[in-house]
Design a protein that fits this description.
CATH architecture: 3-Layer(aba) Sandwich
CATH topology: Rossmann fold
Strand content: 5-15%
Largest sheet: 7 strands, parallel
Radius of gyration: 17 Å
Order of helices and strands: EHEHEHEHEHEHHHE
Structural class: alpha/beta
CATH superfamily: NAD(P)-binding Rossmann-like Domain
Distance between the termini: 38 Å
Number of domains: 1
CATH class: Alpha Beta
Strand order of the largest sheet: 3-2-1-4-5-6-7
């Protein structure tokens, strides 16, 4: 019988000091994985690490900026030094420094979004995929967004980057599938995180979104954590190159 156990696995999760990333880390740890907490701020990473360890899990923190390839290489090497392997990679960290029409978007903002939301995932995945292939086992999960599934007048570059993440997952799934390595995306809808605060703290936007959502609510970070466990575990062993949408049904509404 396929199970959701991750006992003995080692998972690296970027952007895991808060929000969706933290929920994914906590869920993976609860399923038995040893987890590596990573974001730019060391103190924030330590708080989550301490919380997981105090709850009976195993965690370490390795701060890293996704914009810096050397820091990502250190993230992987520090994980190897502690636990000798990476079985699960979750690329969750992302940037969106601009909100508004693309006509007014500074080049620097566009470049930063594409770099942090696509290129860094490509870097990090290729740092761990070879070892997964060698063991004939591994799972990479990219946290995308439903923004990558439809047009937008205010989140243009972000949506482009999230659509690209879905294609990155498909490409890597084909490339590494013969080695029994799976690559998938999770595409959340509007989740109550600090990252999306500008959207859900606006009463008018929030009410409109909730009204348009079949489940009539916004998502919570813990709505996403369990999906990552499923995709990383034996229960998801025959799923690759896919995007799992978790949006309360908002994208099915005509």
């Amino acid at each position: 019988m396929k199970t959701l156990s991750l006992k003995g696995k080692v998972a690296v999760i970027t952007g895991s000091s808060r929000g969706i990333g933290r929920s994914i880390a906590e869920h993976l740890a609860a399923a038995g994985a040893k987890v590596v907490i990573s974001s730019r701020k060391a103190d924030a990473c330590e708080k989550v690490t301490e919380s997981i360890n105090n709850s009976g899990g195993e965690a370490i923190s390795v701060p890293a900026s996704i914009s810096d390839k050397a820091q990502l290489e250190n993230l992987v090497s520090a994980t190897h030094k502690k636990w000798g392997r990476v079985d699960i990679l979750v690329c969750n960290a992302a940037s969106n420094p601009y909100y508004g029409p693309m006509a007014d978007m500074p080049d620097e903002a566009f470049d930063k979004i594409l770099q942090n939301n696509i290129v860094s995932n490509h870097w990090l995945a290729n740092m761990v995929l070879p070892e997964m292939a060698e063991r004939k086992d591994g799972a990479v999960i990219i946290v995308s967004s439903i923004g990558g599934l439809k047009g937008t007048s205010v989140l243009g570059a972000y949506a482009i980057s999230k659509a690209a993440d879905m294609q990155l997952a498909r490409n890597l799934a084909i490339e590494w599938g013969p080695h029994n390595v799976r690559v998938n995306c999770i595409a959340p809808g509007l989740i109550k995180t600090d990252f999306a605060r500008a959207l859900w703290e606006n009463p008018e936007l929030r009410q409109r979104y909730e009204t348009q959502t079949p489940l009539r609510r916004l998502g919570e970070p813990d709505d996403i954590g369990g999906i990552a466990v499923f995709l990383a575990s034996p229960a998801g062993a025959f799923i690759t190159g896919q995007t799992i949408v978790a949006d309360g049904g908002v994208t099915i509404v005509g």
